[in-house]
């Protein structure tokens, strides 16, 4: 109800801009030309490419096939994302109850149901809500398959991981890497892990083969090289905003230098990496501090590449601004955010270092670490952490539960 009330009330200025416009173009061309292409609608040449991942455009194309391309499909997108966001909360509550009981489920459910980023992102034509649902679904299916020793459920978990990987390539190596490790270590359940591994690897492999057969064009590696360069500039987010919004000459000069490095990187790693390395090695301590701070930026609050606060695009009549109760709740979440991140770190260490923790919980911890490392290397932007907020809160609940058990154990020993 909260998500639906939010998307019906909030007014996003020009909702098909930036990434959203690219997703729409891909969906349009999938629907009208059967081609995955960034070409603008009505373009005379529709050449296939692989700059974006296909999952979210395919999701949009399916809704466009049902509702057309007018205002009705926009409403359908937002409503469907409300449903997906709600389902994500339910899946995470189920996992929390399995690991920590009803109290853990209630705590996780309240935070996930009302967390401002998770509510607000349902109102954008962006992939974060879909990706968060697919990750939660994959982990729920994984945990269920392990509990029931079900090979079909393991295969379904693998397909959910593959759908997540096709929605955002950051997820691509995670399940195959962890599945291959378990295939080697967990001999009694080897058939289960083999089913998961095959299911999570085949669809992305088919997509990679398709991309390899395309003529030379702008592909996903170009986007990675751009993110790598932009993430290596501490000034990028501020300079990008000032250059666009204020026509600041200094910011424009910084953006020109960033663009020069990006073009060199796209021309070839042998040309781009030495240029990047020369800049980093000229002031190593500064850049070491920058990269060390990026995990905190990733799990921070304010969206940097966007409007700021919890907003990517300018948004009027947000319930978190117009409602006094929800505005106060947003302030509480802002204060809680770093403490939840700290508890999630404790829960991650507990999941990985304690031998008696459920395997799916260890997968959550490993996925959180892999995502953090990837975005630390590329761009550390709170928007990119939104799909992983469910994992963060589940791990935070685990961390809080572990601290409570330690405190209770010490209290019992002290009273004895």
TrEMBL record:
It comes from Luteibacter flocculans. It is found in: Cell membrane. It comes from the Bacteria. This is Glycosyltransferase family 39 protein. Its main location: membrane. PANTHER family: MANNOSYLTRANSFERASE YKCB-RELATED, MEMBRANE PROTEIN. The chain crosses the membrane at residues 99-115, 121-141, 153-172, 192-209, 296-314, 334-353, 360-380. It is a multi-pass membrane protein. Coiled coil: none annotated. InterPro entries: LipidA_mod_glycosyltrf_83 (IPR050297). Keywords: Cell membrane, Glycosyltransferase, Membrane, Transferase, Transmembrane, Transmembrane helix.
